[in-house]
Structures are given as C-alpha cells and as structure tokens.
Amino acid sequence: MAKTWEDLQELQPVVLKMFKNSIMKDRLAHAYLFEGMKGTGKREAGYLLAKSVFCHSPLQGYIPCEACVNCKRINNGNHPDVHLIEPDGLSIKKAQIQALQEEFTKTGVESRKKLYMIVHADRMTTNAANSLLKFLEEPHAHTIAVLMTEQAQQILPTILSRCQAISFQSLSPEKMIEKLRLNGVDPQLAPLIAHLTNNLDEAIEYSQNDWFVQAQKIVLKLCEALKKTPLEAMVALQDDWFKHFKEKEQLDLGLDLLLLVFKDLLYIQLGKDGQIVYQNEKARLEQFALQSSNRKISEQMTAVLEAKRRLYANMNPQLLMEQLVLKLQEGSSFV
C-alpha cells in the first residue's frame, strides 16, 4: 500500500498531474471515480491522495512527506478519518454504506476532513448504491469520496454523474514484459503474465507460484479435451478444473488463461506468431490452429467473455463451466 508520489509518477503521470493541480488550486472534487484495469494503481493513488490531504508538511505544497504521523498512519491503514470499504463476500452491502454514513455524522477525529474509498464500487447491491447516491447528493463539507472500479458501466449513471472520472492507463504489455525480464522472470513466461495483470508485484508473484504453473497446464489440457467428445471434456472439468480453480478469483484467472489460448490461435492463423503469449506451447497451439477456423475461434472467445460476465452475475460456477465447455465445442456463443 505504501506507494510514494515517485512510485506512481512513472505508472500514472496524468493522474499525478491532476492531483497536483487540484491540490495547489484547492479545487479537489468531493467525489472521484478511479476507473481502469486491475493493477493500474487505483488503490495506491487513493491512499496517496489521502496522504496529500492529511499530510502535516507536504513537499512543494502537494507531495506527502511520508514522515509525519498522518502519512505513517495512512500507510499503516489506521488513520481515523480515512475509511476503506471493500466487498463483504461477493458484494458491498447496504449496511456497509450505512455504517460509513454514521461514521461521517461524527466530527473528524483529527480535523474536519474525512476521506473514504470504495473498492470495486461496481459490486454494490442496488440498496447499497441507492444509499451511497443519497450520500453523494448531499456531500459533507471537507469530505472526499473515491470510488474505484474496473467496470464503470456497472455503476448507476446517477452515481457516475456525481463523480469526477479519472482514467488509469494500463502499462503496455511490451513495457510490462521488459520490467518482468529485468526482474528475472523467464522471457518465455513474461508475455503471458503481462497480459494477465498490470501489477508488477502480482506479476512477479505469478512467475514464482506453483499454483499458476499448474493452472496453465490444466487450461491447455481442457483445450485438448475440447477436441474430443463432450463426455471427455466434462471429465476434464471434474478431474482437474474444479479441483484447481476453487475460488471466484481463481476461476476468473482460469478464464483469462483460456481466452489467451484462443487469442494465440487467432494470431497463428493470421500469421502473427510474434504476438502469441503461450510461447512454450507454440508447437501444440499450431496443431490446434490447423483444426479450427477464424470464425469458430472468434465465437469461442465471445463465449469465454460472456462466461466472465456471468461469473460476476453470481451464476453457479460449476454450471457456468459446463455450459461454457458445451458452447466451446459447438464454437458458438452463449444464447
């Protein structure tokens, strides 16, 4: 969590410039929406903004000193006037927003200022979103709200209209690959990981994780099974997939790995071998590509993307994967 101004400057220079201008002109908005893919530094930027707001001795008037008691408490996650809300299970509940509202009826412990962050704001229940909307419609003075999301389209338009949207740009896969290689990651594995996350620490963790190595093997084994009978494909699900991808986040990663296989098949068919990410499996993927068509692969990619959407619409994971496998064998998208 303890990312400094310098740490984030390279990753999100536009966001940092906006922070600087708003702080120096005393024009911070009462509500922000940080939108961008996982690993682009949204949470770190939220804490950085909090430090800029609460710092006792900001450098040049806007950069947190990182040394005062407020900066240290925010870095340690225990500042009394900085609050973080995350999904409780699969969603953010109305009770969580109500508890936040009650907290904000109290006078600030250290000053009149307060800041709250809502991670995965797109996962608020309808009741939670409506409670937050009332909160945003009547903002407390000296209060800053920071909503974070990878799926802005899932948030109520009425909430979006009350927030200043800030887009967090992804590091290009090429730059991420370069950073991974500089950190000692296998050059043949780096392209695959670079397409899964924009977070360097998480990417390095993947490269050292036995679970992740096994996940790749299981995804490719499922692709082998898809060329056979539906029964054999279902057996592959039961024997390997469901035992390995147990949590929702793990299943989401498994679907991402599967999607990248189909993308590689498409690149091979288009003669763009240099863009494939499963470089260690190139020979096997070339055989897969010979047995399919551009149209079928495109339909399979659509089916995987739809499965990812349904995963976060609380569909039963086992049923989701069984339906997906049948659709992938047909080569058509979900109906």
From TrEMBL:
Residues of the DNA polymerase III delta subunit C-terminal domain: 248-329
InterPro entries in the cross-refs: DNA_pol_HolB, DNA_pol_III_delta_C, DNA_Rep/Repair_Clamp_Loader, P-loop_NTPase
GO biological process: DNA-templated DNA replication
GO cellular component, one term: DNA polymerase III complex
Keyword RNA-binding set for record: no
GO MF entry, a single one: DNA-directed DNA polymerase activity
Keywords associated with the record: DNA replication, DNA-directed DNA polymerase, Nucleotidyltransferase, Transferase
Highest taxon listed in the record's lineage: Bacteria
Enzyme Commission code: 2.7.7.7
UniProt catalytic activity: DNA(n) + a 2'-deoxyribonucleoside 5'-triphosphate = DNA(n+1) + diphosphate
SUPFAM superfamilies: P-loop containing nucleoside triphosphate hydrolases (SSF52540)
NCBIfam families per the UniProt record, alphabetical: holB, PRK08058.1
Protein name per UniProt: DNA polymerase III subunit delta'
Organism: Cytobacillus depressus
